[in-house]
Every structure is written in C-alpha cells, then in structure tokens.
Amino acid sequence: METPASPNPVPLTLLTGFLGAGKTTLLNRILKGDHGLRVAVLVNDFGAINIDAELVIGVQDDVVSLANGCVCCTIRDDLVETVEAVLARPEAPEYILLEASGVSDPTGLVTTFLDPKLADRIRLDSVTCVLDADQLFAHRTRRELMLLKLNQIGYSDLLILNKVDLAGPDETANVRDWLDQSFPRLRIVEATHCDVPLEILLAVGRFDPARGALESPAAASAGACADPSCHGDHHGHDHAQAFSTWSYETDRPLSLDAVREAVRLLPGNIYRAKGVIHSVDDPARPAVLQVVGRRVSLAAQGEWGTRPPRSRIVVIGAADSLDEPALAEAFSACIASTAS
C-alpha cells in the first residue's frame, strides 16, 4: 500500500501484538539503539495503571503515558491530541513510537494515522507486529482472541516472529507455514528477545537516505557502499549473518512510476528498502524511497544542492536469500527511456 507523504512529516511506528509477545522488549531495543534520533514514545496499557510505561528503560520526559483505556477505541481523540501536543514541543521529536495495548485492534489506529489531515505532520512509517512463536495457537478455542491476533497480523507491514528459541525449530516451522499460507507476501523476521537490526525497524536517523545514510559508517557496516568511487551493486552481511544487504547505484535518472512498480513486486524475503532517487519526473529534487514490509513511501524532498544527482538504493532481506541479478534487472528497468 502506498501512503501519501509531504516533505517533512515525522515518521511514526506503531507497535502491535498480543499480550506478552515482546513489544516492550522491542521498544527498549529501539530506544537504546545507536540511531541518533530524538524519539517520543507513546505507551498505552489497558487499565488504570500503565505498567508498560514503567517498563520502558531510559526515557522519562519523552514518554507519554496513555492509561485508562485502549488507544484503538475509548481514547482515540486523546491520542491525536497527544500526538499534536508532542509535535508542538520546542524540541520536536524526529521519530514517534506508539506501543499499543496487547488487546488493541489496530484497525482504528491505522485509519487515524492515515488521515489526510495529519499527512503534513505524521507519516506512518510502519505497523510492526510482534508475535510470540511459542504461543500463537495458545488461545485457538477462544474465537475472539484468535480474531484479534489475526487482525494484528493482517494489518502489519512487518512481523517480528519472536521467542523462536522457546518455540523450537519444529514449532517455528509450523508457525511459518501457517503464516505463509494465511498471509502471503507478509514480511517475517524471526527473532529471540526481539533482537532485530535497526536498519529494518527504522527508516530515519543514521539509516535515513535523506541524511546521507547510504554513505555513513552504519550503512557501510550493513553492506551499503560508502566508497564514492564504487559503482554498481554488491552484497554484504550484518547482524550475526542473519540478514543480507544489497545496493544499487546509477547516475541515470529513473522513472518514479517504474520504481513504485518495482518495489511493489519485491519478494517476501525483503524486509526493507530505502534510497534516494534521481528521477526524470523531478530532476531538480531527490525523491526519498522508504519501503517497510508492504508499505511504500516515495516523495520529493529538498534539493540536490552541491550533491551530484545519483540514485542509491539499499535492500535488506533474509540472509543469503537475495536474488541479486533479479534485483539489478528490476531496478535497471526503472531507468527512464529518455536516459537510455
């Protein structure tokens, strides 16, 4: 699905998942990560005491507790007002994380943050669902709980299949088979203790292509080309060999429509793609590409300035699973005919 974007909206990640799946663990990993971002955190717990907010490590003033209700229903209006108040702070956040209650249906939340009235201030970067691989079928006789889990999974752009160490290889394989059959093309990352690279979770900070992330040490360590003399594409590994990256570069302008179609057809083993696009549609301005799971954002941002116009794209996927020739062919096909 493609979401409209304005030049400077603040990205927001919505963390969903059933009770005990590991959302707060994932939130803490993001907050402690080396991303260089000013992050505002909204934490909602279903009840009078917001326990999850007390479990968030190392963040105080930037945590906004949303207790006494589930953000998907009774306090939706309060949620929007809170987000607007956070954005109006003297030091506005560069990223917003919203951890929804484990009993939240994400339908209303997704609709809220896709509201065109918020498009100039908020960009829904991803809906990331954390799923307990060991407990997915624990409530199979309770229809309402299974429907809730299905909705949480179905609305996600990226699924973190957590606690695979507890589930074991056989049960994890069973869960993967069921997910693949029930939710085709869903991006799934297996994890223990929600240990997932920031390159996959966040589209900004050191990994934001609009800030030159494709030339940063962090991007280089993830397999992106940091050498200005490097041309073409190559392949690398990061995060204990669990993930692979591939990069593409060209000085020839691309067609934005062709890029949209190319990323829409990316296979399910690709979790995230990001890049700066030199386009024939708007050659004076770089277009920033962000892809997380099934969500795509492609919008012009700023100007090239003193930088020579060049397209740079980084793809992150499962280890040793990227079909590099196919990726190179797909993106090379986006070169505008007038640039051939």
Quick structural overview:
By secondary structure, this protein is of the alpha/beta class.
Quote the distance from N terminus to C terminus: 30 Å
Counted beta strands: 13
**pLDDT averaged residue by residue:** 76
- The value of Rg in angstroms is 20 Å
**Main sheet record:** 7 strands, parallel
Helix/strand-derived category reads alpha/beta
| H and E string | EHEHEHEHEHEHEHHEEHEEEEH
Strand line-up of the largest beta sheet: 3-2-4-1-5-6-7
Number of helices: 10
The parts where pLDDT drops under 50 for at least 5 residues are 47-51, 53-59, 210-240
The shape is globular
Q: Indicate the percent of residues in helices.
A: 25-40%
Q: Per DSSP, what share of the residues sits in E-state strands of 2 or more residues?
A: 15-25%
Descriptive account of the structure:
- The protein is α/β, with parallel strands linked by helices.
- It has ten helices and 13 strands.
- A seven-stranded parallel β-sheet has the order 3-2-4-1-5-6-7, with helices on both faces. Strands 8-9-13-10-11-12 form a six-stranded antiparallel β-sheet.
- The relative contact order is 0.14.
Describe the protein's topology:
Blueprint: E1 10-16, H1 23-32, E2 39-44, H2 51-55, E3 63-66, H3 76-87, E4 95-99, H4 106-113, E5 122-132, H5 143-154, E6 158-162, H6 164-182, E7 187-190, H7 198-201, H8 217-221, E8 234-238, E9 243-250, H9 256-264, E10 270-277, E11 287-292, E12 295-300, E13 311-318, H10 324-332
Parallel strand pairs: 1-4, 1-5, 2-3, 2-4, 5-6, 6-7
Antiparallel strand pairs: 8-9, 9-13, 10-11, 10-13, 11-12
